[in-house]
Amino acid sequence: MKDNIAKILFVALFSASFFLPTVISLLAGILLAVTLGSPFKKFTKKISKYLLQLSVIGLGFGMNLHSAIEAGKDGMLFTIVSVIGVMCLGVLLGKAFRLSRNNSYLISSGTAICGGSAIAAIAPIIDAGDDETTLSMATVFTLNAAALLIFPAIGHLLGMSQEQFGTWAAIAIHDTSSVVGAGAAYGEEALKVATTVKLTRALWIIPMAVATTFIFRKKGKKISIPWFILIFIIAMLANTYFGIPEAISAGIVTCSKHALGATLFLIGCGISVQSIRNTGIRPFALGISLWIIISAATLAVTMLI
């Protein structure tokens, strides 16, 4: 009886996850896994990997190389320092919190670049398990939701200008949607600055993915080229140079976002109660620590500009 209920719920939630917000899809998968258990473990593990890669590729059609570089050139140095700094600090803190290498790297990537999208791109390259990917995603999404509420209030309290807030939000908030939301809540100019700087930051997915293939290369094993990242680059270049109609590129991006929601549901289904018990609050401790440090550091620098 329990198995039948789990199967019915799985099919219903999987179908709905294409249209739900990504964070809700992830939580739905986690709740199903820890209560009734995932009824199709082999299916979820295999399909989630390929669906994740397809989602990342599709998002490439929403990026224009020239626009991203031009829009964020003023904050380029700021972005470079913050990305490299967060990655190095995250790895060190991960060891202090006794987290697995994969967990530390995923949370650091999500914090340094663009939240769930970065984790989605990096996870297949490092062969991250469903538990590691799920906990990393949950950590980043939780902090994104908090930032969306907290950042505008802090900005008004400190009397930040529209430009200052936009820059701070783009660097210190992980996910693009939360950056856009916070910028829009603060003002029109803040939204424009936040979006453009965030675009440049998102481009770091490419060098990060390439570097990761070397960092996580196993001794005696050939380097596994992340083909889906190469196709992601081709998609971005096609959108930049081949004049793809906006309606088509926007449609592909929309479908990719829907597919990403379904992917996160499947990833959430792969988590186990035992893994949560073993890891505890350490992933959240790392994520919160990095978030506080990057937020405070970028706020201080932004206020001085």
Automatic annotation (TrEMBL):
Mainly resides where?
membrane
Which Pfam families does the protein's record reference? Cons_hypoth698
Which keywords annotate this record?
A: Cell membrane, Membrane, Transmembrane, Transmembrane helix
Q: Where in the cell is it found?
A: Cell membrane
The annotated topology with respect to the bilayer is: Multi-pass membrane protein
Q: Where are the transmembrane segments?
A: 12-38, 50-69, 75-93, 105-126, 138-158, 165-187, 199-216, 223-242, 248-272, 284-304
Q: Which GO terms describe its cellular component?
A: plasma membrane
Sequence similarity:
Belongs to the UPF0324 family.
- Tell me what this protein is called: Sulfate exporter family transporter
